[in-house]
Amino acid sequence: MADDRVDPASGRGRRQVLKAIVAAGAAGAVFGRALAALAAGPGRVTSEMVRQAEWIAGLTLSDAERELMLADLNESQGRLETLRAVDVPNDVPPAIHFRTLAPPPPPPAEQTPWIPDRKPQRIPSSDEDVVFASAVELAYLVRKRQLSPIELARLSVDRMRLLDSRLSAVISVTASLGFEQARLAEAAVKKGNAGPLAGLPFGAKDLFAVPGYPTTWGSKIYANRQIPEVTAAAVERITAAGGALMAKTAVGELAWGDVWFGGTTKNPWKPDQGSSGSSAGSAAGVAAGYWPFAIGTETWGSIVSPASRCGVTGLRPTFGRVSRHGVMALSWSMDKVGVLARSAEDCALVFGVMHGADPRDPDSETRPFAWPPRKSFKDLRIGFAEKLFEGGALEAAGSDPAENARKQRGRDQLQFDQAVLDVLRRAEGNLRPVDVKFKVPVEALSNILTAEAATTFSGLLRAGRLGEFARQTADAWPNVFRQGHLVTAVDYLRAQRVRTLLMRAFEDRMSDVDLLVAPALGNELLLLSNLTGHPCVTLPDGFHADGTPGGISFIGRLHGESEILQAAMAYQEATPFHRRRPRLG
Asked: What is the pLDDT of residue 203?
């Protein structure tokens, strides 16, 4: 614990408090209390320990109140040590469940996944065209037997071999499995009973379990240690629909960032830059032409951020719409499984086969998903976060070139985002401003993730293994896991209650619109919508001077994936950004 934390009783940092005590000649009394605590013996809670711990909980107790607590606290410590000794596997959830504010789902009706039946405007004429074709285009061409699933698998492997030494987007190549699945898809096409994703190669973030292959979670702690016997539900459903798994993709260690035990996953648009994370390899692989789509997860930006950085389209569905069975747990009340692809329509194609209840994930449920959309784009009520599209006063250029470049990039991104609204208006979108300022302290609720993640991996802290992490900075898991053990149960549950207030407030703001358009990054809506469980699709909306893409997000109402994908598709039909290709040689 850092020694400059604020003491709530005095409002000063602990260093300043210590100096004041010494100056007042009270050092001897403090030393005496410390000796008394030591004399109590190991494992015994003393009144002085309670006094020292009070500031963590924001309390000030009397000596009598502290003494009254000691007997029960010491008994409780023994019970806690017993609990800490229990080995709890990662796939065991707590006995409480998060629920969005949506009403209970209706009885599930039979839903037939959409199968593309529209001929592409441009038929691929080269291998380069094929690897950058959309999932929707490839699905049509495979079904019409104009492309072979086995050939698509070969192109995928060749692409990874050509580029991945530069991009580090892949942890495990699953070519033998992928070719087997491609052969099955080819046979199904010949018989006329192929699934919606027949023959399409894809990647799965290395949090998803696949038998016969390591599931590393991006950490050397787990590398070559976990060979699962189960298949993640999302992988099951995609392969059942004809998909061919070609790789386990790079994931920032334990789902944070783009740094894993093999290095840093790079942005195909600027290979000296990280791809962002933690669905780093899934986003980079799609952008580089490894596969037309990949699956990832998001807890707080892990689809939105790499999608924006790598210029692909990322769908983070409503909490509970896609089963998390067979996926590493980080935060039980915030984890979501989603898609990274070339276009909004591609995301709709893949989501259409992934979503739905799974008895192995008690938080999953079945809701209707209409694709193609049933209503006109012009009928959608499109809110936009008005304050986030307003430009402040232009900052004068300074002497630091890097800082000036950062400011210019921010100005350029604001112009990209403002242009999105113009495109939607020209498409006769029904736009209306929405106030996204809330009284609830959104950032303070990040302690929910801190506490849940620290609980999930508490065994690593107690076993002394946090030093084995690739990153050892303030903004990395080792530091956060330690902090999480100082979040009290009372404060965690209070945060969950405040979260309910936020959910109600946000649902109220969304009541008059079908979706909300907002900048992808740099605002509270990213954390907010992850806490409330709302869906989001992020897509490229321009390119900066250094050739890297920028991104915009469409946030939907609960279970409003159809509407956000429809609006995103309308935008992409009017703009070229999602069709651009990085120059990788």
From this structure: 98
